[in-house]
Amino acid sequence: MPNVSNRWLRAVILALGIFIFWECMKPVTELTILQSQTFLFLFLVILVLLFYFQLPLWLIGLSGVILTGYGIHFYFYRNEPYLSAQWILSAARAIGDNALLVWSGDLADLSDLFSAFLFFVLLWLVCFVVAHWLKTGRLYMFFFLAVTSLSMIDTFTYYKTQQSIVYVAAAGLLILGVQRYIVMRSRTSEARGRQSVGKWIIALAIAGLLLVFLGFAGPKPGPQWPSPILYLQNKGWLGVNTAGSFFSAGQRIGYDADDTHLGGSLGMDSTVLFTAHVSGGSNYWRVASKDVYTGKGWESSGGSYSPLMQPSGERAFSLYGSSTKVAKETATVSFSAASPPILPYIGQLAAINVPGKQLKMNPLAGQVLTRDESRAKSEQISYLEPIYQLQALRNTTPGTDPPLVREQDLQLPKELPNRVRTLASRITAGENNRYDKVMAVLRYLKSSRFTYSTTQVSRPARNQDYVDQFLFDTRVGYCDNFSTSMVVLLRSAGIPARWVKGFSGGTYSGEAMDTVGDKKVSRSVYEIRNADAHSWVEAYFPGSGWVSFEPTPTFADPGRFTNAAQGNGKTSSAGRTNTAERSTAATGQQTRPQRQQAQTKQTQNSAGMNRQQAKTKAAVTHSAGKQFTAKSSNNKWKTFGLIVVLVITGTAVLAFMTRKKWLSWIYVRKLSRVSVRDVHSFNSAYTDLNRLLGFMGIRRENTQTLREFSERVDRRLSGNNMTQLTGYYERLVYADQIRISNEEQVEIGMLFRKIAAQLTDKKKN
Amino acid sequence: MTQSLSANQLVSDMIENVETVIVGKRNTIRMITVALLAGGHVLIEDIPGVGKTVLVRAIARSIGAEFKRIQFTPDLLPSDITGLSIFNQKNGEFEFRPGPLMGNVILADEINRTSPKTQSALLEGMAERRVTVDGVTRPLPDLFFVMATQNPIEYEGTYSLPEAQLDRFLLKLSMGYPSRTDELAILDKHSGEDQLAQIRPVLTVSDILELRRQAESVYVSDSVKNYLLDIVIATRKHPMIDLGVSPRGSLDLLKAARAFAFVDQRNYVVPDDVKAVAPFVLAHRIILRQDEAGREGAAKTVIEKIIDHIGIPVMTREMIR
């Protein structure tokens, strides 16, 4: 009777343990690219059960390999049949290559496949440990680590685990209660009936339910201390889970400076980054634009910053040509502690004032930062809201783009598949002017061919192009997919375009009366959250400058277009302004050939002074850009470093905890093939044997003679092999024997093998 | 290893012989053999009636040598055991009449019943292997093996042996009561006397001398010597011991360990040998502090405790390389 019900109680413990384990692992499906809950659940349940029931090693190994293989296939090679050698070879090669990268220290280049592979391997080990804990009843440890890991996830990621914590606490209470019951019953000699089991379980269930109820219904005070993650972020120590592509489901929830590897699903995080009082309408907040498409994401070609005086009356950089009408507006932005160190603005920045900070700007990207790239508390800006003139946009003359715009904003990677170019020319074929071509591309992307989704978004494989994958294969994506595709299509069609990142308008939360200058104005208040992070497109129109377009479905186009007649004759001047701004960047960067500089000098006139100033200032701080890019790759390095360190630490901890098992395995193998040739090999084999016995709990005390010890060993193993062996060994030690005859060598080797075999039998029983 | 074989044979023959008259004392017999091969003497201390004398007589008979028995009584004089010169009236000269001490195997029964004067004569002979009678020093034979018995000192009519003289004995053994089954076997046997007469010698004097020579050549490694010294030195520092083991004690311990290893068919000494003989070699060589001395077997217990705390020398990897 006790045995039968014990088995049931152990099954309950196992089930609850798996539930707790699952609750702890579930965030992985939100935080990483491994998004299938079913697969993860099956993976860990199967492995935990295999380990728990101590099934033969080959079976565990085989199942692990099949599951890991299935996982890799499921996430990375879904289009290929599971049982094809092709993807297996390709995956194996990728893992091999990446393993080499690890050795050579190029952690930044590790692929997602490898990260996933490492994750699966780590999960194996964790499953083993969990099964071990459940089996040996180390439930306090298990429970404690489960709650700790959940609170860590809650603290350090955007994933909210409050619900899980309550469930886990309740399940933990049950599991400990059941275990306690087993212990109590084994201690009391009298047999207890089913009744007491029932009572105990009812009491436990009531306690558990009460806990769940209290957990959900009880009042919850706000955070009792400021989130440590903000502190760490401010210190610059936590580039870790926000960058890196493996975690990119977590990465692309908000604003991130690193866009080099786009793709993966999007998490939703409603942390408020900044609150803005805006005098104009709701509009997109521009942070920076990027011009180099790599096939995987975006980089900036001119990362050079020059100091920006504030409050800056001059036009720091201009977006719009003379054909575009502007309306002057103001905004005051206050940043929350969660905000990245950005200074966003609407439209074209006219003046900016950040109290207590010195500023710098990158004219090429249109990015303003504090000089030390720290987070500002607030900013006051005045900006120009554009009203694009449709006629001017339609009436652009082909071939009038400034050379620098042509050079930079038509860039495409060599590896870009031809079908993208073909598609671009097919879409724009029917149109005769630039604006309509842009609109055709826009319509194409907003058509029902493509689905907007923040989840179920694939990532390009190693040799796949991000845009190509989206346009032809997956057709599911979010702003990054749409905006990047539009830029690439426009560029393929010969229209200069660039990729802009920032935030959408945010959530309207009322009106406020502010004093701007000396007047009181009513301004709208918007809250911009992490989930508002966005990307869109700017296309260049001679005369009108850079015009914003919104290719993402469900988002309204931010630009205001009007059909009103436009003034003429200033087209060239706008073009020149823009060019001037570009050449500033070029000189700052100091990589452009002199000839091109000379070329741009011819086209510039009005902004000469501006350029001159920028040039001198750029000379002082031209290294800032390099630091910027270095920092973002540093972040990735940190992520992969973290993964590798975790895997290594996990392996090391596990290896240490299970050292008796695997070390004794090693020693048994060693001893069963030992060949004793001389006293040295005999001595080391005998030492190994003693270590092995030590792992099995038979240790020679210091005051015990070899003989006494070997008799003890023989009592445990039956027979007298150890005594015989020790007889030979004693001659080494006490007779100072230095030679072992051939017959003795054979005999000694045989004794070692016999003892090794006995030990193996013993372990099996 | 022919010599080991014969040593082993000796012990088993001896045990077989002696077991015909006394049951269940293998270990004591073995120890007595060790003393014989180490060239030392044995003192057996125990209460009357456990078979000390029978045991010793059986062993003595197993050795084909001249056996003498001295029954110690309070009125025994030194000359009674050493022998004396008597005037021979025929040739008008003094003629030496050897006493019982001049034999090969001596049974000194109830040694503590005689006066210290006579005890001294015996002990001097044991230590110096010669006796001086009437100004003439006469050597004792090459094989000179004394097995003495005594009753525990608190029994009436005993003169306790002086401590300084006790260490003339290599081993001090005690027999203890037989186990229940052994005693049952004793009850089943006839009275020992006629069986004792049937014991045949199993080895000769020259055998013993040869075996002794071989036992002396048993190898003792430095580590074992150091282990032995660890034990000896520990007796000198032990808080319960007033007087520790002397260097003579160390020498005797080494001798006994060698013989023990030899009896165990080995030509090298292991720490187990030292451990096995040490209580018998050392217990009667130490003087316990006054408050500890009274208890029966206290000294042996102290020695055993000391041994239990001494680490065993075992070769490590570094030693062999």
UniProtKB/TrEMBL annotation, chain A:
The keyword Transmembrane helix applies. Residues 471-553 form the Transglutaminase-like domain. The chain crosses the membrane at residues 7-22, 34-52, 57-77, 113-134, 139-159, 165-184, 196-217, 637-657. InterPro entries: Bact_TGase-like, Papain-like_cys_pep_sf, TgpA_N, Transglutaminase-like. The keyword Transmembrane applies. Residues 584-604 have a biased composition (Low complexity). Keywords: Membrane, Transmembrane, Transmembrane helix. Residues 563-582, 605-615 have a biased composition (Polar residues). It comes from the Bacteria. PANTHER family: PROTEIN-GLUTAMINE GAMMA-GLUTAMYLTRANSFERASE. This is Transglutaminase. It comes from Sporolactobacillus shoreae.
UniProtKB/TrEMBL annotation, chain B:
Keywords: ATP-binding, Nucleotide-binding. The keyword Transmembrane does not apply. Residues 234-302 form the ChlI/MoxR AAA lid domain. It holds the Pfam family AAA_lid_2. InterPro entries: ATPase_AAA-3, CbbQ/NirQ/NorQ/GpvN, ChlI/MoxR_AAA_lid, P-loop_NTPase. Residues 41-171 form the ATPase AAA-3 domain. The keyword Zinc does not apply. Gene3D superfamilies: Magnesium chelatase subunit I, C-Terminal domain (1.10.8.80), P-loop containing nucleotide triphosphate hydrolases (3.40.50.300). One of its GO terms (molecular function) is ATP binding. Belongs to the MoxR family. This is MoxR family ATPase. It comes from Sporolactobacillus shoreae. The lineage of its organism: Bacteria, Bacillati, Bacillota, Bacilli, Bacillales.
